[in-house]
Amino acid sequence: MQDLDVLVIGGGIGGLTTAVALLRDGHRVRVLDQARELRPIGAGISLWSNGVKVLDALGLGAGIAAVGGSMERLCYRDLHGTTLCDFSLQPLVDRVGERPYPVRRADLQALLLGNIGDRLTMGQRCTSVEEVDGRVVVHTEAGERHEADLAVVADGTHSKLRSYVVGRTVEREYVGYHNYNGVVPDSAALGDPRSWTVHVGEGKRVSTMPVRDGQYFFFDVPTPDAVPDGTDPQGALRKHFAGWDERVQALIEAIDPPGVATLAIHSHAPIDTYARGNVVLLGDSAHTTAPDLGQGGCLAMEDALVLANYLTTTSVSIADALQRYSAERAPRAARIIERALKRSRLSHAHDPAATEAWYQELAQEDGSSIIGGIAASIETGPCR
Ligand SMILES: Cc1cc2nc3c(=O)[nH]c(=O)nc-3n(C[C@H](O)[C@H](O)[C@H](O)COP(=O)(O)OP(=O)(O)OC[C@H]3O[C@@H](n4cnc5c(N)ncnc54)[C@H](O)[C@@H]3O)c2cc1C
């Protein structure tokens, strides 16, 4: 199908990638976002090779390579700083055919925005969607009405419009830990700047990854209470990680507290169908996953490419293309949601004995098993 008139609701990673893909295919695209000013949610993101391959397919490979961090190795340490394993990520690149890039979210957003021209309109909080006489109609809080051939609902994990497609409210579930993340300047005190370094112990994790001019970090802390207290992240981290390795202490002291995001991590049970008529879910509105595999944003990017391809390669109807997209994407995302949840429970000591056994396994790891796990997420995606 050609020259479709498409409304994309939400200008996050999923919505913007969709806009780039549909514009590439010659469709007319408008992106509506509720925010008055588009700011990335969170500081950094690890784009695994499947996400990078989507950008390659959209002609943005050089763009992401220019702003992505050079992540050459993966190193696990225990809480005292003793190395459990430390290996090159080159075998992963050789196996899947593309690098991963940790990146500042602002850089990724700028890259995508730079390729959609003036198609984004801010301050458009969409409140409902309906189909009238073969047209999709989207209503906004301010009373505006937008018509299109189809609507892509990419309004994130708190989606207002998801229930129109799914036919019910989808409840998010607290996964059991809080995440603190941000970016700090590079410093020798943090360890090897070209390594993804993860300290593990007591069911907690501390991670640093190279991004442009700095290190994207996150701390995970298992916590029963789903409501995070972001008032003093540095104080909280000093308490939670007292006695940990000196590199962890250096990281805590390097953070800029106002720049730290503090989140309670959620997931939701897989949704069976992403399409209803000419309306389709994409990204976190369709599949909110715990970030333990670093795949939520990569899945959203894959969604965008697959959706655009079905709209191009089928001619029965828009609804038919959306059903084909849904049939391909829902099982893929369900597997990632389930694997991420399992990984999250293991990392965060839901069963302390299992987590202790995992720490012992890390000490025996030569890289092949971890690389195999990462490759499994990549090789089962649409860009092999
Ligand atoms: C701590 C953490 C770490 C993560 N790390 C990784 C990682 O390393 N790798 C990875 O691939 N993924 C990661 N993810 C997941 C990733 O951030 C998400 O999957 C991704 O941001 C989803 O993109 P999206 O476009 O679907 O939603 P969002 O990025 O949330 O964008 C939704 C957009 O919709 C707009 N919007 C919302 N409601 C409305 C409305 N009613 N009307 C109009 N606009 C609206 C919002 O303003 C926003 O701009 C992580 C997530 C978390 C929480």
Question: Could you write a compact summary of the structure shown?
Answer:
With about 375 residues, the chain is an alpha/beta fold. The chain has twelve helices and 18 strands.
Describe this structure in words.
There is one protein chain. It contains 12 helices and 18 strands. It is 36% helix and 26% strand. It has helices at 13-24, 49-57, 61-67, 90-96, 105-113, 162-166, 233-240, 246-254, 296-313, 318-347, 352-364, 368-379, and strands at 5-9, 28-32, 44-47, 73-78, 83-88, 101-104, 120-121, 126-132, 135-140, 145-148, 150-153, 173-184, 195-201, 204-211, 214-222, 261-267, 275-276, 279-281. It has one domain (5-172, 267-379): 3-Layer(bba) Sandwich (FAD/NAD(P)-binding domain), CATH 3.50.50.60. It has a 7-stranded mixed sheet with strand order 5-4-13-14-15-12-16, with helices on both faces. It is an alpha/beta fold. Strand 4 and strand 5 form a beta hairpin. Helix 1 runs parallel beside helix 5 and helix 1 packs parallel to helix 9. The chain binds flavin-adenine dinucleotide. Residues 9-15, 32-35, 41-42, 45-46, 51, 124-126, 154-156, 160, 179, 181, 263, 283-284, 291, 294-298, 300 line the site of flavin-adenine dinucleotide (FAD). Flavin-adenine dinucleotide is lined by residues 9-15, 32-35, 41-42, 45-46, 51, 124-126, 154-156, 160, 179, 181, 263, 283-284, 291, 294-298, 300.
